[in-house]
């Protein structure tokens, strides 16, 4: 039986959950997820988890934060004076915004606190610092 190897293009159905069982993403009702193993398109732990799986095999993969979205970093949380925001922006907690780094890179941030003078934004990935659990089924393997 053919097994998933490096550089194979694979198709998988998956359900991603937190350790609490809360589902954060799923391919249910959608086309399967396609990616090339080893191309860096997926988090490292997901790629490692599908290696060696056979066609139609189902498996549960547990991925620690360091092989997923990394640990939460305090240096990715910062306060921004409201005077530096666009005049028409009315920020609120949970709002997603985009910030630009000094090199011009655009990064997504989430507003975590709003006060009279400033807002606090967090550039950590929402799943950073979390162990992820994926139920995976390989539905296609191509050379």
TrEMBL record:
It comes from the Bacteria. Residues 94-103 have a biased composition (Low complexity). Pfam families: FKBP_C. PROSITE patterns: FKBP_PPIASE. Its EC number is 5.2.1.8. Residues 65-103 are annotated as: Disordered. It catalyses: [protein]-peptidylproline (omega=180) = [protein]-peptidylproline (omega=0). Residues 7-83 form the PPIase FKBP-type domain. Keywords: Chaperone, Cytoplasm, Isomerase, Rotamase. GO terms for molecular function: isomerase activity. It is found in: Cytoplasm. Its main location: cytoplasm. Belongs to the FKBP-type PPIase family. Also involved in hydrogenase metallocenter assembly, probably by participating in the nickel insertion step. This function in hydrogenase biosynthesis requires chaperone activity and the presence of the metal-binding domain, but not PPIase activity. This is Peptidyl-prolyl cis-trans isomerase. It comes from Mangrovivirga halotolerans. The lineage of its organism: Bacteria, Pseudomonadati, Bacteroidota, Cytophagia, Cytophagales.
């Amino acid at each position: 039986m053919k097994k998933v190897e490096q550089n194979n293009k694979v198709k998988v159905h998956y359900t991603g959950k937190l350790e609490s069982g809360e589902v954060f993403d799923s391919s249910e009702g959608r086309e399967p997820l396609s990616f090339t193993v080893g191309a860096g398109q997926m988090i490292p732990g997901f790629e490692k988890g599908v290696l060696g799986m056979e066609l139609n095999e189902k498996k549960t993969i547990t991925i620690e934060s360091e092989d997923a979205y990394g640990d939460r970093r305090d240096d990715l949380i910062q306060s921004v004076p409201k005077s530096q925001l666009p005049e028409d922006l009315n920020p609120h907690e949970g709002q997603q915004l985009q910030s630009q780094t000094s090199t011009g890179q655009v990064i997504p941030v989430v507003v975590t606190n709003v006060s009279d003078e400033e807002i606090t934004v967090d550039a950590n990935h929402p799943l950073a610092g979390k162990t992820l659990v994926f139920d995976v089924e390989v539905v296609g393997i191509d050379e």
